Automatic annotation (TrEMBL):
The modification 4-aspartylphosphate is found at D78. Residues 29-143 form the Response regulatory domain. Signal peptide: none annotated. GO terms for molecular function: phosphorelay response regulator activity; transcription cis-regulatory region binding. GO terms for biological process: regulation of DNA-templated transcription. InterPro entries: CheY-like_superfamily, Sig_transdc_resp-reg_receiver, WalR-like. It comes from Actinomadura montaniterrae. This is Response regulator. Keywords: DNA-binding, Phosphoprotein, Transcription, Transcription regulation, Two-component regulatory system. The keyword rRNA-binding does not apply. GO terms for cellular component: cytosol; protein-DNA complex. The keyword Phosphoprotein applies.
Length: 157
């Protein structure tokens, strides 16, 4: 059995993000919205190592454009963007009926800020700096909830 077949057995048939290319599986399409190129590079590297397809944008306006396309599975959204507050952006998405899972990323780690981010429509909240494996686990957990418990990490073939 080849690697793609092994992975296909792990993921449900209806998983909307399963793309098989050259025997590699892309598990989820992730949008990273952050204006810090170093952070984006670290997150992109982490997610690609785990077979996620990553797109990144540095501001809220470009994030809106990508999210309205409807072809990403989860967004990692910085709260402090140069052109818009990330909390306002997630609230606007929810008011428009866009239910894409959003993990808020921010240097603000106070309980009040976390609670506000979740109440305004964020699905999870990760304070910077973060441990890469914890971020990855939180992404997987949010995807699992969004897919009704169907998401499982695919092993690289």
């Amino acid at each position: 059995m080849d690697g793609a077949s092994r992975v296909a057995r792990v993921l449900p048939l209806g998983f909307r993000s399963l793309w098989v290319r050259r025997k590699h599986v892309v598990v989820a399409r992730v949008l990273v919205v952050d204006d810090d190129p170093r952070l984006v590079k670290v997150v992109r590297s982490l997610l690609r190592r785990h077979n996620h397809l990553v797109e990144s944008v540095p501001n809220g306006e470009l994030a809106r454009q990508v999210l309205r396309r409807g072809d990403v599975d989860i967004a990692l959204l910085d709260v402090n963007l140069p052109d818009v507050n990330g909390l306002s952006l997630v609230l606007q998405l929810r008011e428009e009926g866009n239910d894409i899972p959003v993990i808020l990323l921010t240097a603000r780690s106070e309980v009040h800020d976390q609670a506000l981010g979740l109440r305004l429509g964020g699905d999870d909240y990760v304070a910077k700096p973060f441990e890469p494996e914890v971020l990855l686990a939180r992404i997987e957990a949010v995807l699992r909830r969004a897919e009704g418990g169907a998401f499982q990490r695919a092993e690289s073939p």
